[in-house]
Amino acid sequence: MKYLLEHCSLKPLTKELSVSLADFLCEKEPEIQKFFRSEALDYAQARMGSTYCFVNEEMCVVAAFCVACASVSTDEMPKSMRNKVNRNIPYIKQRETYPAVLLAQIAIDDRFVDLHIGDEMMELIKAWIVRYASQIAGRFLVVDAINNSKVIDYYQRNSFRLVFASEEEEKEFCEIDAQQPLKTRFMITDLKLNTD
Fold it and tell me: Over the stretch 55-81, which tens digit does the pLDDT of each residue have?
């Protein structure tokens, strides 16, 4: 079943819609819950990112995501990932930096997680970004995924790849002490390959 496609519409966050987000539940990730409940509108007004909501027939926010402009710098990537990123780009067009879209936040309201709509949501987000990005160009979709095996598996299932092969390599790059936990993992997907 395609719940989001059949029962929801995608709406940009407005002051009116932010009232519906005030009770958005994401209890496993309090920071994400706090963002959608009380920070997303300010973030948008500061032009730091735009939030969009999947809203059902009862005007309840089922899921939400925030996107922002970004770039992917290949000269800072490990060589193996740099080669993978450049492999699908004609040599004459290869650059050190590519336009990208950052998936800054993404969540499904806890009351709707039993519908198993995560993969459908990612598919719709990618399609929407490709349509939107055609206006401003964005080759890649990047995310700082919460460093949790279920979250990483979700993104990998949806064609994202880890930029750094190990947590140690990512900590070294980000200048995080080896003894500190790595809270997120940087992941990337090529939007052109997802839509051709």
Answer: 999 999 999 999 998 888 888 888 888
Two structure tokens written together for 166:
């190990």
Residue 21 CB: number of other CB atoms within 10 A?
A: 20
Q: Are 130 and 194 in contact (CB under 8 A)?
A: yes
- In this structure, the strands spanning 61-73 and 50-56 are antiparallel
Pairwise CA distance, residues 149 & 151, whole Å: 5
Do the bridges between strand 184-190 and strand 161-162 make them parallel or antiparallel, or are there none, so unpaired? antiparallel
